[in-house]
Design a protein that fits this description.
By secondary structure, the protein is mainly α. It has 2 helices and no strands. It is rod-shaped, with a radius of gyration of 25 Å.
Length: 101
C-alpha cells in the first residue's frame, strides 16, 4: 500500500514537471517569434532615407546613448526612450529634436 502511494506521488510530480516544462517551452517560443521593434538608429535611418524633400519629423541630430532628450535617443540599457523622453513629456524641458520643431 505504501509503495503504491509513493509511486503515485512520484508519477504526479513527474507529470507536473512535464506540464511546467511544456508551458515554459510554449512561452519562450512565442516570445522568440515576436517581431522585433526597430531600434532608434533604424528609426533615424528610415527618416533620412525617405523620398520626400522635407519629411515630417526629420531628426536634427544622431541618437545619443544614455540621454533621453529626444524620442530616438537610447537609455543606458540601450532601449529606445520613446515616450519617456523629455521631448514627449508635457510641461518639462522642450529640446529641439526634429527639423520641423
Amino acid at each position: 500500500m505504501m509503495n503504491n502511494l509513493k509511486r503515485l506521488f512520484g508519477l504526479g510530480l513527474l507529470f507536473g514537471l512535464g506540464l511546467l516544462l511544456a508551458l515554459i517551452w510554449t512561452l519562450s517560443s512565442s516570445i522568440a517569434l515576436a517581431e522585433p521593434q526597430p531600434t532608434a538608429t533604424q528609426t533615424v535611418q528610415l527618416a533620412k532615407g525617405s523620398s520626400d524633400s522635407n519629411p515630417p519629423h526629420t531628426p536634427v541630430r544622431s541618437p545619443k546613448s544614455g540621454s533621453c532628450q529626444c524620442p530616438y535617443d537610447t537609455d543606458k540599457a540601450g532601449r529606445s526612450c520613446g515616450k519617456r523622453s523629455a521631448y514627449s513629456r508635457p510641461g518639462g524641458e522642450s529640446p529641439r529634436c526634429y527639423k520641423d520643431d
